[in-house]
Specification:
2 domains, 22-stranded antiparallel beta barrel, Immunoglobulin-like, elongated, 6-stranded mixed beta sheet, Maltoporin, Chain A, mainly beta
């Protein structure tokens, strides 16, 4: 561990030292996001639009001439005549300085230098009033090619199309390579050692991470300390997964296919067509990822009968296989009513089918380690789900720059079904069967409807101010019917077991409103906001109703202060209050017996946990690098945790409880830079201390410890269009913190409990682990339209989970290893043409002006 710590710390110090001494460029250039200068021959994706009106009457000017010329030689770039409502829209603009020229008979001609750089994707020039005085237009900057990593103080954006190690995988593989993010074997996500709230396209989703293919993801946004504009749910901020949707003129798309060791394959295609007022997109992905898992539990149970010790031991071993098949489809369209009004509709259709098999053996021993009995349990399960999500949104922008209003509705409906067979055979100390095997069958059917309705309004105030207002409603209904049948050893019939069966449902409603105001005074900036959320919950099981503590409106303030310094430096201080509400599965008092020696039970008396988060950050930008350093403190009251208690001779019961409190504080350092031309390196280190106090079942438990987490992502461009990417991760030993209900994990696609579920408890310590992933890509054909990617995950096969627990009543070592060293080969081919006149005849107007779309450029 010390060696790993020294290596990562040394890299950070070396990078900072190297780039602190980098000579300044002769002419500073704006960089994309955090200073990456535009490269030549980049895709032409700039977009300028606006409206010509008469300065006196306010009426639109039709047939006004709007042209763009190159500043260097005054050659024509593109142009058009304004429409009947005065609108104009210039697309596919190149990088560099241009001249915007506006002419119309009877009005004074106007022109202005316009610089297309890498700052913003689109720019609304507003209502341009034509009169005798020249209207000066503000400079415009349009986003160019995406950087792999855009780093800010409150948000980090990772464009994952350049992430080679996740090609052909799922959202889990994407997040594994992102700084600050840690994922366990079951797909549970933590950021800064706590669970974030996970969104898809800015909205909550019922999809788990392994149900989202990596090839469908455009980018991932990480907001460690969100403002009042965002949902208050999530202890450590928000992870937003942005799905692909192109807006390039003409048509473009891609196809991909891949295979992997251990019977794994994937394939998919996407296409986007933009013509006139319509932008249509669709994609489809299929993924089969067979895998295996092994595990063992070694437990000592300390009991006493009066003054006599009655210690006994349990040894369990598990071997399991899983055969999932996922299909992901998405299609939609954007319809532009005019330059300032757009309606969007999107539909996601996701389906999955699973087959799993587990063999669980148990050996029971006395205090002298002599075997007293054994058992063998075989679990076979079939699981399927279907998920449908419809998104309807409207966006209106105003002539006033940066003023806009949006309205969205997101409706999700999902269903699932499961059938399983369990065979348990008791054995004597020598492993010989005792009596007949106990046979059980279970069936599950469930349905969820989930809807969000949201509206947001942004209005600039004064020179630098901004007011944000919004409201949101979240409605969720869930039903599930679970039946367990025991086989009668005499008649052979299956009889319902009411002790294990349940029929439960719940509904929750969250109504929220927020207000944010931001402004700058010189180099000092501030933002203050308040979010109000009303939470309503009701659940029942077999007619018995459960409710958490009385729902009252929750207040969630946020405050951001920033100070810009000389030489591209900035300081920022942030505060926010957040909440994590217990899920229904944590509340329902149903006991899970799927592993008889490791039972689980919910707690209807759970309370929400509340977190106060404080963060101080420093950012520094150089020409080819940037550094972000943060120190943070997080205080959580009523923290939701678990505690394990021995019941019977050899069984543990794990229950959810509210810890008294938990404090976590630490420092996170992120350095992104270009070591030499063609070699980019991103290093992330998080050092933290966690202290937790628990009072449950008349016992007090204090669990605390220091730990750290580090990641290094390296990308190197080699001759002959080769690219090599290496991602390395190390997690030092840390105290066990349970995965929150808001983690968005669920790596088993909704699979049930049992031995395959990783236990988590306030009583344990998780052993450290490391992993290294490698990928090589070769681009070929014209314009690098095709590529082959060869990737190897967990090169040294070191990724596993080990939990050590100790208490006066028991001590337990739990080890789990899932297939992680996987070799994959993926092929992709990109196609398309930039052509704004794809479906209509090209023509020239009477003045022989060149129309947009006369030029067709290969993708």
């Amino acid at each position: 561990m010390k060696k790993c710590y020294a290596v990562i710390t040394g890299l950070l110090l070396w990078q900072a030292h190297t780039f602190a001494q980098t000579p300044k460029a002769k002419a500073p250039q704006q960089q994309q996001g955090q200073g990456q200068q535009a490269r030549p021959n980049m895709p032409q994706i700039g977009h300028l639009y606006g409206k010509l009106i008469d300065a006196k009457t306010g009426k639109p000017i039709e047939y006004g001439s709007v042209t763009l010329l190159k500043l260097r030689d005054s050659s024509l770039v593109t142009g058009m005549l304004t429409k009947a409502n005065g609108d104009f829209s210039l697309e596919n603009l190149p990088f560099g300085p241009l001249i915007l020229r506006i002419n119309f008979m009877g009005y004074t001609s106007m022109q202005k230098k316009v610089t297309i750089t890498g700052q913003t994707m689109e720019q609304d020039l507003g209502n341009i009033k034509m009169q005798q005085n020249i209207k000066t237009l503000q400079s415009v900057e349009v986003t160019g090619q995406k950087s792999a990593f855009t780093m800010g103080i409150d948000k980090k954006i990772f464009n994952v199309d350049r992430n080679l190690t996740s090609v052909g995988g799922t959202a889990q593989d994407v997040l594994k390579s992102i700084p600050s993010v840690n994922i366990d074997l079951d797909g549970n996500v933590t950021v800064r050692n706590a669970a974030p709230n996970i969104f898809v396209d800015g909205k909550p989703s019922t999809l788990t991470l392994d149900q989202i293919p990596a090839d469908a993801i455009e980018s991932v946004e990480l907001i460690t300390n969100p403002s009042a504009k965002y949902d208050a749910e999530g202890m450590s901020g928000i992870l937003n997964i942005v799905l692909k949707k192109n807006r390039k003129a003409g048509f473009n798309g891609a196809v991909n296919a891949g295979i992997g060791t251990g019977n794994k394959y994937n394939g998919g295609a996407n296409i986007n067509i933009r013509q006139g007022k319509f932008n249509v997109f669709a994609n489809y992905n299929i993924n089969s990822n067979h895998n295996w898992a092994d595990g063992s539990t070694n437990r000592s149970n300390y009991r006493s009968k009066g003054a006599v010790s009655d210690t006994n031991y349990l040894l369990q071993n598990s071997n399991s296989t899983s055969k999932p098949l996922f299909q992901f489809g998405r299609f939609g369209l954007d319809y532009t009513l005019d330059n300032r009004n757009t309606i969007s509709l999107a539909q996601n259709i996701v389906g999955g089918d699973f087959k799993s098999h587990e063999n669980l053996s148990s050996i029971f021993s006395d205090k002298d380690h002599h075997a007293t009995g054994q058992s063998n349990r075989i679990n076979d399960n079939n699981f399927n789900f279907r998920n449908y999500t419809t998104l309807l949104s409207f966006r209106h922008t105003y002539a006033k720059p940066n003023k806009e209003w949006t309205a969205d509705m997101n409706y999700n409906s999902s269903s699932n079904g499961r059938s399983g067979d369990y065979i348990t055979q008791a054995q004597n100390a020598m492993g010989a069967p005792i009596g007949q095997a106990l046979m059980q069958n279970n069936t599950t059917s469930g349905k969820t409807t989930f809807m969000t309705i949201q509206t947001d309004y942004t209005n600039p105030v004064g020179k630098n101010g901004k007011l944000e207002l919004g409201a949101k409603a979240t409605l969720r209904n869930y039903t599930s019917l679970y039946n367990v049948y025991d086989k009668d050893t005499i008649t052979g019939e299956y009889i319902n077991n009411p002790l294990l069966s349940n029929n439960y449902k719940y509904n929750e409603e969250i109504y929220a409103g927020y207000a944010n105001f931001a402004n700058t005074i010189g180099n000092f900036g501030y933002q203050a906001g308040l979010r109000v959320e009303q939470y309503v919950y009701a659940g029942e099981n077999e007619g018995v109703k459960y409710k958490p503590t009385k729902a009252v409106p929750g207040l969630y303030p946020s405050l951001f202060l920033s100070q810009k310094l000389k030489k591209d430096q900035e300081l920022q201080l942030n505060y926010s209050r957040r909440v994590n509400r217990p899920s229904f599965f944590q509340l329902i008092p149903y006991r899970d017996y799927s592993d008889p020696q490791n039972q689980r039970e919910g707690n209807p008396n759970l309370k929400p946990e509340y977190t106060n988060s404080l963060e101080f950050s420093y950012v520094k930008n150089w020409t080819n690098s940037n550094f972000l350093g943060s120190v943070y403190f997080r205080n959580t009251n009523n923290m939701i945790s678990t505690i394990s208690t021995p019941i019977g001779a050899d069984t543990l019961l794990t229950q959810f409880i509210n810890a008294n409190r938990s404090n976590s504080y630490g420092a996170e350092l992120t350095m992104k830079n270009q070591i030499v031309k063609g070699w980019d390196l991103t290093t992330n280190v998080n050092l933290y201390q966690t202290d937790m106090k628990v009072n449950a079942n008349g016992q007090n438990f204090d669990n605390s410890g220091f730990s750290w987490f580090g990641k290094i992502n390296s990308e190197t461009k080699l001759p002959a269009n080769f690219t090599v990417q290496v991602n390395a991760t190390y997690q030092a030993p840390t105290i066990a913190l349970p995965a929150s209900s808001g983690s968005g994990g669920g790596g088993r696609g909704g699979g049930g409990g049992g031995f395959n579920q990783i236990p988590s408890s306030a009583q344990g310590t998780i052993k450290g682990f490391s992993t290294v992933d490698l990928a090589v890509r070769k681009d070929f054909l014209k314009n690098k339209a095709a590529s082959l990617t060869l990737s190897l995950s967990d090169i040294f096969n070191t990724r596993q989970y080990e939990l050590n627990q100790a208490s006066p009543a028991f001590a337990q070592d739990y080890i789990r290893k899932r297939e992680s060293r996987i070799l994959k080969l993926n092929f992709s081919y990109r196609f398309g043409k930039f052509d704004t006149a794809l479906f209509k005849k090209k023509k020239k107007d009477q003045n022989n002006d060149t129309q947009m779309g006369d030029q067709m450029q290969s993708f």
